[in-house]
Amino acid sequence: MDDRYDVVIIGSGLGGLLCGAILGKNGYRVAVLEKNAQIGGCLQSYTRDGGVFDTGVHYIGGLAEGQTLHKIFSYVGLMQHLKLKRLDRDGFDVIQIGDVRNEFPYAQSYELFVEMLARSFPHERAGIESYCEKIRSVCSRFPLYNLINGDFMDKVDMLDSNARETIDSCVSDPLLRDVLAGNNCLYAGVAGKTPFYIHALILNSYIESAWHCEGGGMQIATLLGEVIEAAGGTIFRRAEVSKIIVANGEASRVLTKDNREFAGKWFISDLHPVITIALAQTDVFRKAYIHRISGFENTCGAFIMNVVFHESAFPFRNHNIYYYSKPEHIWNGIDYEPDQWPNHYALFLTEGKDGFARSASIMCYMRYSECRPWAETFNTGSRPGARGDDYEAFKEEKASKLFDFLGQQYPGFRALVKAYHTLTPLTYRDHTGTPEGSLYGILRDYREPLRTFIPARTKIPNLFLTGQNLNLHGVLGVSVSAIVTCGELLGNDFLLDEIRNS
Ligand SMILES: Cc1cc2nc3c(=O)[nH]c(=O)nc-3n(C[C@H](O)[C@H](O)[C@H](O)COP(=O)(O)OP(=O)(O)OC[C@H]3O[C@@H](n4cnc5c(N)ncnc54)[C@H](O)[C@@H]3O)c2cc1C
Prior knowledge:
Layout: E1 5-10, H1 14-25, E2 30-33, E3 45-48, E4 51-54, E5 60-61, H2 68-75, E6 84-86, E7 93-97, E8 104-106, H3 110-120, H4 125-140, H5 163-170, H6 174-180, H7 196-208, E9 210-213, H8 218-230, E10 234-236, E11 241-247, E12 250-256, E13 261-269, H9 273-280, H10 287-294, E14 301-309, E15 320-324, H11 329-332, E16 344-351, E17 357-366, H12 389-409, E18 417-423, H13 425-432, E19 463-465, H14 474-490, H15 492-501
Parallel strand pairs: 1-2, 1-13, 2-10, 7-15, 13-19
Antiparallel strand pairs: 3-4, 5-9, 6-9, 7-8, 11-12, 12-13, 14-17, 14-18, 15-16, 16-17
């Protein structure tokens, strides 16, 4: 009897879990190996001091009926169980630059999006329309994003436009140009690098519809785990893969740190490609390939302060806020001088009682280099470790600066807060295994779009990649990547038909 799993999946982030659910649904016997005690990776949420905090999913786009993520989540049986709240239709994101009293909303649906921004920029209505048209036209060229089987060549000439230049070409009002790039933190955009298609695919999904997971994004991981187990799959927690054994050019099994072995016919890695290659340690990967992949720059990290408010202290708003003290920080927020930090934040609120917020996550960019003194430390829930008093002091100093910064826009902000704690790029590095705690994995560069193109197939014919480094990060991007990966086993036409008809 063949006691191998059909598919061994390394990592239980959204990518790994969704592959497990799709393949399980199609009769494959799946094992998912997760290094942490909890599954989910960036989907994880946790409760602290009475607040529920998301680690990496504050809001999701494309979940209304008929939209791409709705179809994918329906196919795996998730959609009817999700507890979602739609963000404000007339402004799911509000951009503030310089003065918080200047609010520029991004509305849901293209008509309303144009309408709301044209109220502040009536002279630019045609420009805003052409910006929307550009976004839609780019999105229409990415077949899988629209659940259509297509060719890589369909989108190839969409890959080499720069986000900032393209936005600037649509409108001429300098403030509106900044406003249109205002939720840059969603993709950690860099002025001279980020391609327009990244901006377009992400913005489009939220303009279509924008949702908050009530009670946290962890529900997605829990539900996917249930789907996998109901289909006969097994999830192994605290199973950190330390090696992928390759024999005769094929992967045969993986070893975990605690010396367990999992044999499989196929293997899928939801890890960063650099980590996957390091785990495989094989000369099947050519040196030039390893060198190229290892040389990729990753998106920056973030400092996150999670606060719980006193009762009836901070008014709840059913939208996210992106604030920049100066317009230049929209595109160069990561190039801060440490003594001038922070210069921006993204604020995500959760609802409390009587129109007030219970808690908030406040996120701003942080370079990994600031955390380098503690690079040798490690700390997660399943492998606790102390980073030292100096690290705690570093975090406290950053929290204090962020409180002061928030206090400039919301006088007395700190006094409204009952409890808080902070996360740094080190938290993310240790929790998800992402190099240097990068927010969204590989940074794409419009000048060399094919250099950072990562296919699902690898040189090892039965080892595939999935997750945020394939095409696009985010819940929608990773879900589309899972389809790409599963399509390698099931056939793209078959899988897309199944999803469209489900
Ligand atoms: C701060 C932050 C905010 C975000 N906000 C949003 C948002 O609002 N909306 C949105 O759509 N997206 C958001 N994202 C992006 C989104 O969360 C991610 O792109 C997506 O969840 C990544 O999924 P993944 O499957 O690629 O990998 P991950 O979530 O990184 O999962 C990888 C998994 O592999 C496990 N692992 C690592 N190494 C090993 C090993 N050796 N053995 C076994 N397991 C291992 C990890 O523990 C982890 O569980 C955010 C991300 C961050 C960091």
